[in-house]
Amino acid sequence: MIQIQQSAVDSSLFGPSSLSKSQEKIFEALLKSPKKYVYENKHQLLFEIVLRDRIVHSAVALNKSRVRFAIFRFSRCNEQFWIRNELGGFQLRKGVPPADAINDIFVNSHLYAFECATAIVIVFYKAVLDVIDQQTFNTLFSDLLLYDWHVDQDLGIRTKKGEDYLPGDCLYFKNPEFDPQTPQWQGENTIYLGDDLHYGHGIGIKTTAEIIAALNKKRKKSATKSAYLLPQTTRVGFTYLSKFASNLEHYRLPMNNKLITGTMGSATFLYW
């Protein structure tokens, strides 16, 4: 359910062909949600739809890239843009624009390796960069550190309980009886893409059942408890960030890069 101030919103709010197909799905998911989503104005709602759409596209782009999964001890980065610290995190080099450094992860992806939480944060930053202008992004995120869930406060990350899963949310699959020899598989952070598909760094794009099956293969030998999806969502600060997006007209037009889903055997493929 959606409200703008005190008025309920229906599917007629946006005119025909004013949203791309993937944006329409997000709008419909918000409308159909049992939770009430309240906005001060239409701009805030449109911004959330656009940013959620870019989160999904950024997740798929990272999946298609040549980045690798690695625990912190073996993480890698392009040292032209980042300094790898003693914890395995990536600190932005002085004098490097944050927008350039985030974009480089997708341009020179073969130079990077990191674990799943860092991947989620990178997806969030890239999506925000795609929606607000680079100068504003560089001002907001001038001292980037990519390490686990360490994030700039302006990203506005919040985790809440609930099962109102929407495309662009970060979800978490817990593996309660993981193999202690591989603690990196105690769970998996994913970006929910919609239609029961998730992007999990190190696992790929899979259904809910496939993510759980992949984690169950990483349990200790005596394990009896299955991995499961936690009833919670982790989201960026859509309302706060909407203040920094002055022109969303470009994103209101149907874009050519809409997602297409396909399957071959047990594998799922997404293209745009």
TrEMBL record:
Superkingdom of the source species: Bacteria
GO BP: any one term: sporulation resulting in formation of a cellular spore
EC supergroup of this enzyme: transferase
EC number(s) reported in the record: 2.3.2.13
Keyword Protease: no
Alphabetical UniProt keywords: Acyltransferase, Sporulation, Transferase
Gene Ontology MF terms in the entry: protein-glutamine gamma-glutamyltransferase activity
Protein biosynthesis among keywords: no
InterPro entries, per the entry: Gln_gamma-glutamylTfrase_bac
Protein known as: Protein-glutamine gamma-glutamyltransferase
Record lineage: Bacteria, Bacillati, Bacillota, Bacilli, Bacillales
